[in-house]
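Q: Structure for this?
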Amino acid sequence: MKSQELVFTNNVGEAIDAIVGEINPPTVFVLVDVNTASFVLPRLQALSGAVANATVITTKAGDMHKNLESTKAIWKRLGEEGATRHSLLINVGGGVITDMGAFAAATFKRGISFINVPTSLLGAVDASVGGKTGINLGSLKNEIGVFRQADSVIVSTLFFNTLSSEELRSGYAEMLKHALLQDKESFDRLIGNHVEDLAPDTLLDLLQKSVLIKKNIVDTDPEEKSIRKSLNLGHTAGHAFESLALERKSPIPHGYAVAYGLVTELVLSHMKLSFPSDVLHRFASYVKEVYGAFDFTCDDYPRLIALMRHDKKNLSAADINFTLLRNIGDVQIDCVIAEDDIKTAFDITRDLLGI
Amino acid sequence: MKSQELVFTNNVGEAIDAIVGEINPPTVFVLVDVNTASFVLPRLQALSGAVANATVITTKAGDMHKNLESTKAIWKRLGEEGATRHSLLINVGGGVITDMGAFAAATFKRGISFINVPTSLLGAVDASVGGKTGINLGSLKNEIGVFRQADSVIVSTLFFNTLSSEELRSGYAEMLKHALLQDKESFDRLIGNHVEDLAPDTLLDLLQKSVLIKKNIVDTDPEEKSIRKSLNLGHTAGHAFESLALERKSPIPHGYAVAYGLVTELVLSHMKLSFPSDVLHRFASYVKEVYGAFDFTCDDYPRLIALMRHDKKNLSAADINFTLLRNIGDVQIDCVIAEDDIKTAFDITRDLLGI
């Protein structure tokens, strides 16, 4: 997989124009959803000549529209507006736009150039590196996609003032995960702060450190054969919480689910790999304070376990696979855990979060 | 792009079982169309344990069904039947099945393993190497796709007895193109024969030589930045003939269009690059004898030229781009040719083919 240019800057217009100048495409397209079309695009058009002159493609907002129908509409617009295999697509938005826009670009005429400009913290920290593109198929998340790196990703905090505290905290949970995978210094740096109180340049600096942790892991194992699985920390339990909330028709933000999932998986790490108890307690207190708690009882355990069984990370339908930690920065991938241990971990999670 | 294993054999069952044994997938799927389901699949199920035990996915036959709707049905079947990212898809059929099946596999859960077993000569010689996967979007051919190599391609002549002479000749035209790109020896070897008279093992040998010519070119330039464009020889004019025939509601086989296109482009090669007149005449005589002629008049020139302008190989809408030859094996890519010269070449083509 080709490598990508990763730019951390709050001079977003200049950065886009410089990169478009290098790529020098015959035509430029900008993909936005109806939200970024209103709140971000006009600012970006004022800051960047390339964006101002580009053809704008607008799609519906929200994960339920990250689907084949929307992708087909993007392909059709590209074709109708004369895009060639040398054209460039700039994806401006959250994870939905960067995942789907990247997939559309990666498959249009067997792949055209694209740049991602994430406008949410979650998008910046989670979707800006890794080359995972994709769309949902029915209720199956990211069922269809390819691995393809953007030509460039421009990471900034410039548009974060349009985000709610909840959206900021959601992104911050992925930064906490990266810190847990890295070292105690990274962990201490994050857990001392509340994301909504950080100045834009301070947050950009923390964000850069966090994205580079992910980048190092992804560069080592781009197609998730081995160590990239460490990025699944918190996500086996987290996805189950997220899906259960969705089934109850009271969805929770992805990062909140990850925060709760990290608590459960650090409990498992403590049970199975002697992850230090004091760090677990410190982390769980932070989650309880910042993210509150996800309300679940013993009656939900069978459904949560069934949801974990269907996770596409499992090698076989019989196993439930986790990434766990021996300590901060000391990762053990491919841990198959028995149901009874998972239930115990749920009990302790509820206890720690005061559920 | 990863490299692929290319196996030339008429012991197809053994070859499939050996490769499936190496890949060792938890589940195996076989994609066929309604034709290969009847004429090829039962034979293959008798020859290969892996195929006999696989879940069969059947799709409609014909290029008009190489579309998003069919691809979505394949994705859904894979999901419903429990395919994981470690599953294997075996595509058994002509170019439609291998192009679409490869695209479906390359995008299902961001890419699963797949094997191509081409059952037509055209599929074997044209689609078995190169990693071009794709489907049509509306009337736009191969508008959506990715570059992705099969894990293995098993090339045989075992199923060619189900093909008509027309289908055999259609595939042979692509072999003629490869010979023109390679050397005089390859050219002489092919032009002395009629494909329908060849014994299976003789044809397999010629086919192997032909596919390896293409493989060498593709390995040098997998994403068609430069020398891979040489494989477009005959196809700029050829696609225009093919599209015109389709517009007239009397379609011609792809390889026939390529044969006529090769004549026109060797005429241009003679006009612009002094390609030897005797080789041009020898080739045109062979085409006239084997492929007959495509009936077109001066009144068709403007439409043919318009069709060539829309070719996705062009860098800009203003130019018409050809791959031409100075001599057999001496290629010149990116030749932009003026309309008047193209018209002259059409005049000479009609003369050579007795139209």
